[in-house]
Write a structure and sequence with these properties.
By secondary structure, the chain is of the alpha+beta class. The protein contains 6 helices and 10 strands. A hairpin with a 7-residue loop joins strand 5 and strand 6. The structure holds zinc ion.
Amino acid sequence: MPASGSRAVIESSDRKPPTTGQERVGWGAYLLTQPLASSEYPTVTDPIDTPVTYEAQTMTDTTTETDPTATPAPAAPRPPAGLISARGRWAAPPLPPQSLSTVRLGEDATLIVPFTDSAALTSRHFIRSATGNGGYVRCEGGGCLLCALGKKAEDVTLLPVYVPADGAVRVLAIGDNVRPGALGPKLVPILDRVMAGEKLVVEIRRLPDFSFEVAAFPLTPGGADGAPVIAQFLANLTSGAVRLADVYPARPRAELLSIPGLAAEALMRGIES
Ligand SMILES: [Zn+2]
């Protein structure tokens, strides 16, 4: 698997003291810059992830080819920042687009199959809107309109899990809350077991007081563990075809200001569109 550069993932089951490149975050997790641990699942080679080779294009004019005073042609430049190689895009068929959504936890039990403890950290806002265009939105950090309007930003850990009921990988959004009954700390010993090679099903219930009941039991031998779906997801994640943080839309400023309540508050604060 290629190095994933600066992709921020966290490794939560490793409770050893941080080593170089790790930073303690959240509920006993470490911020890492390493690819997902996917050793239990087959490696899928992603064509998009294959480095694109830019063929050297000599710019030499044949009429001056033998001119000893001619300066050597510079190496063919890579596409400027923000652009891609069109050939690289279609040299191999791209994977189908895959969109992610969060796991909805409630008082009914939800079953998940954890397969990694590599997660992403993000920050979200919740927009209340009477016109139906509210919901969670990604916090953009510096320059975030919602922060400027004094809206609370909540840090969440986004852990991909397989949801048997959906036959799909979805994202468990785990708050930084570490009070008794919080979800994150309850998952740590389970993720320890998963990362040690156990195949587990986890049953989660969110209680009325927003604490969580969490129980783990072994995956039924021969039961559908979602391995092909998980392998495809990991390939897409590694290639950047899916990003965990995309479970929350980054809504443009103008779109946010079209929400009546936010527009009124922005006006009161003298924030211009
Ligand atoms: Zn914000």
